[in-house]
Amino acid sequence: MRPLPALLLILLPVLQLVVALNAVDVTEGYVSFEVPSINRTCQTYYKIIGTLRPGVRPLIALHGGPGVNSEYLEILSDVTNGRTGPLIVYDQIGNGLSTHLRETAGNKSFWTVDLFISELKNLLAKLNIKEYDLLGQSWGGMLGSSFAIQRPRGLKHLVLFSSPASMDLWIQAQIALKNKFPEKLRDALDKYDEDHIPTPEYEEAMAYYNSHHLCTLDPFPLPIIHGAEWAARDQTVGDTMYGSSQFKVTGSLAGWSVIDQLPNIKVPTLVTNGAQDGAQDLVVLPFVERIPRVKWVKFQNSSHMAHYEEREKFMRTLSKFLYH
Ligand SMILES: *[C@@H]1O[C@H](CO)[C@@H](O)[C@H](O)[C@H]1NC(C)=O
Ligand SMILES: *[C@@H]1O[C@H](CO)[C@@H](O)[C@H](O)[C@H]1NC(C)=O
Ligand SMILES: *[C@@H]1O[C@H](CO)[C@@H](O)[C@H](O)[C@H]1NC(C)=O
C-alpha cells in the first residue's frame, strides 16, 4: 500500500469531525397503548430519527397498508436531518414491531379508523409532543385526513401523500388502471382477484400492477419489500380493513370517505401523487378542491412511492412546504 499523501493525512481529522457533526441520533422504543375494547395493553413501536426535545416540531409519518410497517418512511429523514425537529415513524398496532392481534382477524368493529386515531393520540401524549407536522402515505393519509378534520391542537402542517379522499374513488381508479392492462392480465384479474386465487396468471397480473402503479423502481427498495413481507406474514389488519382483493374493498374501510368534512382541515396541506400512481388524480382531487389552504404537486416520473422514485424532487418539495 502506498503511504497516504500528506494532504489527506491533514484532512482526515477534519473529515472525522464532519462525520461526527452529521451523525444523527436515533432512538427506538415502545409506548403502551390501552385498548379498552379488548381490555388489553398493547405496544406501539416508534423510531425517532433526530432529537426530540420540548419545543421542537417533529414530522410524524403514518405508514400505509393498512398492515405494513414504517421502515419505508424512514428515508423521509432526508428532510428533517439538519432541522431542529426530528422525524418520527411508528408501526401501527397489528403489525411490524408493535403488538400483533391475530385473534381479532375478521372483526370489523375492532379494526376501525378510530382505533388508529386513538393510537396516534396516545403516541403524541406519551411522547409529550405539543406541536407537530403530520404526513400520511396511502392508507396513512386516510388516517391523517380523518384525524385532521377533528382539528387537533398542535397540528401545524398536513401532507397527504398518494392517498385517496374516499374508498369508492380509489376503487374507481384501480379499475380504470386495470382496464388498461394487457388483455391476458386483465382477464386473470377479472377471473381470480375476487377470490384471491393465486394462479400464475394472477400473480403475473399483480406483479404488473405493483411494478407499474406501486413502485416503478427495479428492484424495489428493501424497506418496501420488508413492508410487503410483514403484511404477508400477518394479514389480520389488511384483510379485515381492506380485504384480499385489490379491486374491491370488503373490509371495514368499505364506504370510507372524508370528502364532506374536508373544509374542516384548516392547516396548510400538501397533496401529492404520481402520474402512474394507484392514487390517480381523481382520488386526490377532493382534497385539492375542498381543503382551504392546499397545494398539489404531482410527480411525473412516479407511481405510489415518489419519495424513492423521485427522491430528490420529493424531498425538496416537502422541505419547501414544511420549512419555508
Ligand atoms: C379486564 O381485565 C381485568 C384484569 O385482568 C379484569 O379484572 C376485568 O374483569 C377485565 N374486564 C373485562 C371487561 O374483560
Ligand atoms: C369485536 O370487536 C368489538 C370491539 O372491540 C368487541 O366488542 C367484540 O366483542 C368483538 N367481537 C368478537 C367476536 O370478538
Ligand atoms: C423521467 O425519467 C426519465 C428517465 O430517467 C428522464 O429522462 C426524464 O427527464 C424524467 N422526467 C421528469 C419529469 O422528471
TrEMBL record:
GO cellular component, one term: membrane
Alphabetized SUPFAM superfamilies for the sequence: alpha/beta-Hydrolases
Key words, A-Z: Hydrolase, Signal
Signal peptide range in chain numbering: 1-20
A Pfam family assignment: Abhydrolase_1
Molecular function GO terms recorded: peptidase activity
Residue ranges of domain AB hydrolase-1 in the record: 58-310
Biological process per Gene Ontology, one example term: proteolysis
Gene3D superfamilies: alpha/beta hydrolase (3.40.50.1820)
Superkingdom assignment: Eukaryota
Keyword Nuclease in annotation: no
UniProt similarity note: Belongs to the peptidase S33 family.
The protein, known as: Proline-specific peptidase
